[in-house]
Amino acid sequence: MDCSLLRTLVSRYCAGEENWVDSRTIYVGHREPPPGAEAYIPQRFPDNRIVSSKYTFWNFIPKNLFEQFRRIANFYFLIIFLVQLIIDTPTSPVTSGLPLLFVITVTAIKQGYEDWLRHKADNAINQCPVHFIQHGKLVRKQSRKLRVGDIVMVKEDEKFPCDLIFLSSSRGDGTCFVTTTSLDGESSHKTYYAVQDTKAFHNEQEIDALHATIECEQPQPDLYKFVGRINVYHDRNEPIARPLGSENLLLRGATLKNTEKIFGVAIYTGMETKMALNYQSKSQKRSAVEKSMNVFLVVYLCILVSKALINTVLKYAWQSEPFRDEPWYNQKTEPEKKRNLFLQAFTDFLAFMVLFNYIIPVSMYVTVEMQKFLGSYFIAWDEEMFDEGTGEGPLVNTSDLNEELGQIEYVFTDKTGTLTENNMEFVECCIEGHVYIPHVICNGQILHDCTGIDMIDSSPGGSGKEREELFFRAICLCHTVQVKDDDSIDGLKKNQVPRRPCIYISSSPDEVALVEGIQRLGYTYLRLKDNYMEILNRENNIEKFELLEVFSFDSVRRRMSVIVKSSAGDIFLFCKGADSSIFPRVKEGKIEQVRSRVQRNAVEGLRTLCVAYKKLTAEEYSNVQKLLQSAKLALQERDKKLAEVYEKIERDFILLGATAVEDRLQEKAADTIEALQKAGIKVWVLTGDKMETAAATCYACKLFRRNTQILELTTKKIEEQSLHDVLFDLNKTVIRQNGSLTRDTFSGLSSDTQDYGLIIDGAALSLIMKPRHDGSSGNYREIFLNICRNCTAVLCCRMAPLQKAQIVKLIKLSKEHPITLAIGDGANDVSMILEAHVGIGIIGREGRQAARNSDYAIPKFKHLKKMLLVHGHFYYIRISELVQYFFYKTLYDTAYLTLYNISFTSLPILVYGLMEQHVSADTLKREPSLYRDVAKNALLRWRTFIYWTFLGVFDALVFFFGAYLLLDNTVVTSNGQVFGTWTFGTVVFTVLVFTVTFKLAIDTHYWTWINHFVIWGSLVFYIVFSLLWGGIIWPFLNYQRMYYVFMQMLSSGPAWLGIILLITVSLLPDALKKVLCRELWPTATERIQKASRHCREHISEFTPLACLKSPRYRSSDCSNSPARRSNSHSKKVMFTQWRGIDYSVLPSVFGCSNKHWSSSAGYHYSGSGLETSI
Hints:
Blueprint: H1 3-13, H2 17-20, E1 23-27, H3 60-68, H4 72-86, H5 94-126, E2 129-134, E3 137-142, E4 151-155, E5 163-169, E6 175-180, H6 181-184, E7 186-193, H7 204-208, E8 212-217, E9 228-232, E10 240-244, E11 249-250, E12 255-257, E13 261-268, H8 274-278, H9 288-318, H10 322-325, H11 334-338, H12 341-355, H13 363-375, H14 377-380, E14 395-396, E15 410-413, E16 420-431, E17 434-436, E18 440-442, E19 445-447, H15 462-477, E20 482-483, E21 488-489, E22 492-493, E23 504-505, H16 509-520, E24 524-529, E25 532-536, E26 542-551, E27 559-566, E28 571-577, H17 579-582, E29 586-588, H18 591-603, E30 607-616, H19 618-632, H20 638-649, E31 653-665, H21 669-678, E32 682-686, H22 691-700, E33 709-713, H23 715-720, H24 723-738, E34 756-761, H25 762-769, H26 781-789, E35 793-797, H27 801-812, E36 820-824, H28 830-835, E37 838-842, H29 849-853, E38 856-858, H30 863-889, H31 897-904, H32 906-915, H33 921-926, H34 942-967, H35 981-1003, H36 1009-1031, H37 1045-1050, H38 1053-1080, H39 1084-1094, H40 1116-1120, E39 1134-1138, E40 1141-1145, ...
Parallel strand pairs: 15-32, 15-36, 29-31, 32-35, 33-34, 34-35, 36-37, 37-38
Antiparallel strand pairs: 1-8, 2-3, 2-4, 4-13, 5-11, 5-13, 6-7, 6-12, 8-9, 9-10, 14-38, 16-17, 16-31, 18-19, 20-23, 21-22, 24-25, 25-26, 26-27, 27-28, 28-30, 30-31, 39-40, 40-43, 41-42
Helix pairs in contact: 3-5, 4-5, 4-12, 5-31, 9-12, 13-30, 13-32, 18-22, 19-20, 21-30, 24-26, 30-32, 30-34, 32-36, 34-35, 34-38, 35-36, 35-38
EC number: 7.6.2.1
Family: Belongs to the cation transport ATPase (P-type) (TC 3.A.3) family. Type IV subfamily.
Subcellular location: Cell membrane; Early endosome; Endoplasmic reticulum membrane; Membrane
């Protein structure tokens, strides 16, 4: 057999197609190329089925069991269950098997149901009907039966069934309009272009006669990148090759709009489509609580092994005496006497492991999962986080990180669209030093129809007038804006009246703002028709420009260009972009005047773009065309070759001017950042904008304050000094100010030390991240991190998307290992969202890529405040108590082992984990510093864990030895009988159930009817179950050890006294500890709790938290007010008097509402609000 063929087959079917060939060849309509043209190599591609499900009918049970038993607790209980089956153990296998079966079954049902929903959704998509061409006729079949090479017809408002190369459309110019809402959330209409040589084919017969092959790259997840070429054969002539790019690729999931129908050829199908590649699973994130839980579990496993080992040794020490080893009533058999001693010891060790295995809480995992899953709905149901403007509410993409929201130490946020609205408004333009604004204010009135005003000197002269018109034309032509379709007559819109605003659509809000702004200054962009762009000038004349080339904008070049040809035959190259990419390529123009205006606008927080042009001769354009064609046809490194061509073409410009667009700050963005800083969270802004614009935004949103000393680590600084010197100077500055004390990570806002703000740009960050030449580990990262630790806020500007992720990773992996959160709204923020511990997407104007790849999504940045300070705080408090409570209550073992963790004690702690509020939500929003009480996993530290463990050990000793001393050899029944072993165990178990339930009741601060029902109901259920279990002879049981035991215990007075006494003694130490700590060393949270209960009439709405430290604090407003509080009202009110009128202030901090109130004057008020005249 040919070895090369075998190697090809193995690499093809085992390693995957992408590993064995760099590109693929597709035969349009499955037609082979003409003889002699090229070799026909058939390739195998997947069908068009989408599979998002995880399991199949056949592999569900083994695959699900394998995944569940990868958990250490489940695997441990499986081993214990098998040991109970194999050897003679003190307890029945049912006691381990039933809880394990319950946990496994509940988890399997949950995962199976979720997967069934995915199967259902997959089938709906895969069975959707699709029209394709076969033998010149239109045939209908299911979507899953599509193959690569099929020619498909899609009608208006239908979704594309796979990734298609656009061949032709019903529109004469060979274009179509598409919305990609389901891919990236952008609802704007995007224009796509048919292949030049096939756009004239408008019916099935013409399309079916097409003879062509397509060469393209293998499937890639990048939605905005595609490289390929099409070879169209005409008779036996050489094929005509045309480049294919992202503008020719129609993606699966996108929707056809404003176009009757299109024809396209399938190139990527099924799981190879870009949509499917983008929906691949993200890496698993684990919360700090889950990590702590696993560590505690290992500790308890070690305790269990130690207990079993000690008891095994003690057993053999006890049996060292012959009369103890083999008493007269239990003689050993011959096989037992001959049994190997070490094997017997190992068996006894396993028996003790089984006996004590209830120290490991098997039901904790399922309770935690249910708490997270059900608790996540509180975010989705929060009406305060619903945005009426967009009609969007918060989304929870994963419930595994709920409690991590309460542990955030660093917040990394994007600027545009996150801190700002991403709703651009044209402010002004500067043309050769002359400033034009669309709205002029005169005597307080806005003159909307003003065509511009010169703000610097007199209006431009002759040459200046020509540059002015060129500038306006450049703005009208250099863009990718579309005009919304309308009925048209004779090439003009029916409603197109001079100066009548058009409705513009674009994926970039900047471009729409510029075109609309220039329209108010006299030049109106009308449309693009038959490759001609039409604009309406100030004289109401229509000018036509032939669109020759478009150099699309990209984040590396930071500019875009168009080449157009006027009706007079002049060829212009217009370019607009960031000042840093335009100024170095300008050879003439009023550079300094424009630069000065750009810097001034940037300082004011405006987004600026520079505009330039150059004229091309016909010969120059011909050379440009050849360079572009050569680069566009390349299949390998096309982007790199195009970038080189653009670099050659986009130079020697004449500067025309600059524009300024305002992106307003989002509502309550400054309030949110201020609250986060008070909570001890450091906020970093990562943006691609220029330094001046970003810095102005940071001042506006209170990230930087007037007393903040700004430290710069920018390219300009590094050019003046070396990177080494700049870093060491900055490090000395922050260390010298703070002395020997290192500022805490949670410094937040401080009045004791100087606040520093650091500004760093992308180029400087690249140098810092680059290792030193000598290869030593002593690079600059540690110095940079030390500077950042001592800064209250950091601004990173000119950042590429990858650099944003690098910053997050750098902080995340630093020696403190802080918990990080990244928030953004655009596709360029996805990398940092995925890198951070918690990723939050803004459902904004830049699409849904960020929201789709995030762990949580919110409509506005302001909602981050409640998500962290309220929901995160509550989630962490609840789950930390839940975890500790489970370890505390599983330190015992007695009669009802099987139902103890499942029925008797699990439901109350689950409800606690869902409902508990140790303080009100309004309090947490008013006092962000309370967030510090739970920071750095404060409630799951070793000290707290040891305390709970000690408490459990203490209670266990009290239960056993207390019951033993109280009831030993005591006549306790009327007939003179004493308690036996089972009755003694029932007393201990009853004390246990009541104690752990009362302990939870004591820890509960927020009582609802649900809490009352499950806490007291679980005790009632225990009593009823015990009465039924021991009071009835069950026919399906071989023996009943508990028969009449519970009734015998209840009939004894000393047993009742012993139960009450033991419960009191068990709860007393914890209650004393709580009282002492609250009185002597109260936390800020405990001071608030105390104030809400005992000082309701001594605290006003505006009382600082620091005042609560003093127990003698009294509100002057309360003490001086002549009014008195109604006795029927249980909540706090503050009275003030001004001009003889009483005012009441009901603080939302304690959950009060103005429902009913009376003053001494006898006036009555019923309503809501914080400050109301009475």
